[in-house]
Amino acid sequence: MRRILFLLIFGLAGLAVLVSLGTWQVQRLAWKEGVLADIEARIAADPVPLPEAVDPEADRYLPVEVSGEMLPGEIHVLVSVKQVGPGYRIIAPFRTGDRTILVDRGFVPTTAKQAERQIGPTQVVGNLHWPDEIDGYTPDPDRAGNIWFARDVPALADALGAEPILLVTRSQTDPAITPLPVDTAGIPNDHLQYAVTWFGLALVWAAMTGYFLWRGRAPSESDAQ
Fold it and tell me: CA quadruple 167, 168, 172, 174: dihedral positive or negative?
């Protein structure tokens, strides 16, 4: 009897832990979906002028519209686009008033790396962004070949003589460049998978507990016969 009681308590305790973890992940899923919805609404909002003082945290994803001049000189950041293949993000300096910022003009295929692109007066609509694309495995840029492997905003700004402000276009600045607007696709949201995993483990745990309780009772029933 004590053995059955121990198995029951142990089984219920483990089940409670697994169910609570699954429930927590469901709550985290609802929270994350709310965060993503807020970000998507911010991204799609009407653009405003570039703030005088820009805060990388408070102004992340801020929609901005600027008028000015696309300057010569650009940096190529190696990327791959689904169903298209490898290519480059074109990062260019942009002068607006007495300020120079960075503009991510969008994507070109590798075959268009050396193509001439439109510069001069233009208007740009996009979102401010400071992407986190660097880790311990990111190679240093090949400056001689003008191939970068991440959008390191401070390093890009230093190389192009601009403020560390990156405006990712959602409007086309050149017919040969495909804009890659800011979106939430790169923000991980794995809470549903985690919830399914924990609830699945809870189901397995419950089945195993039931099996061991049944096995624990079997000898007693045999003895009674």
Answer: positive
**Average pLDDT per 10 consecutive residues for the chain, totaling 225 residues:** 77 91 93 90 94 94 96 96 92 97 97 94 96 91 95 96 97 93 85 92 90 70 48
Can you list the positions of beta strands (E) in 32-74? 63-70
Fold of 62-169: OB fold (Dihydrolipoamide Acetyltransferase, E2P) (2.40.50)
Neighbours of 189 (CB within 10 A): 13
Residue type, 58: A
Among candidate residues 188, 181, 173, 157, the one with its CA nearest the CA of residue 63? 181
Q: Among candidates 143, 54, 157, 183, which has minimal Cα distance to 102?
A: 157
Evaluate whether 73 touches 93 at the Cβ level (below 8 Å): yes
Domain boundaries, given as residue ranges, for the chain:
2-39+191-224, 62-169
Burial 93-128 (b: 16+ CB within 10 A, else e): bbebeeebbbbbbbbbeeeeeeeebebeebebbbbb
pTM, two decimal places:
0.79
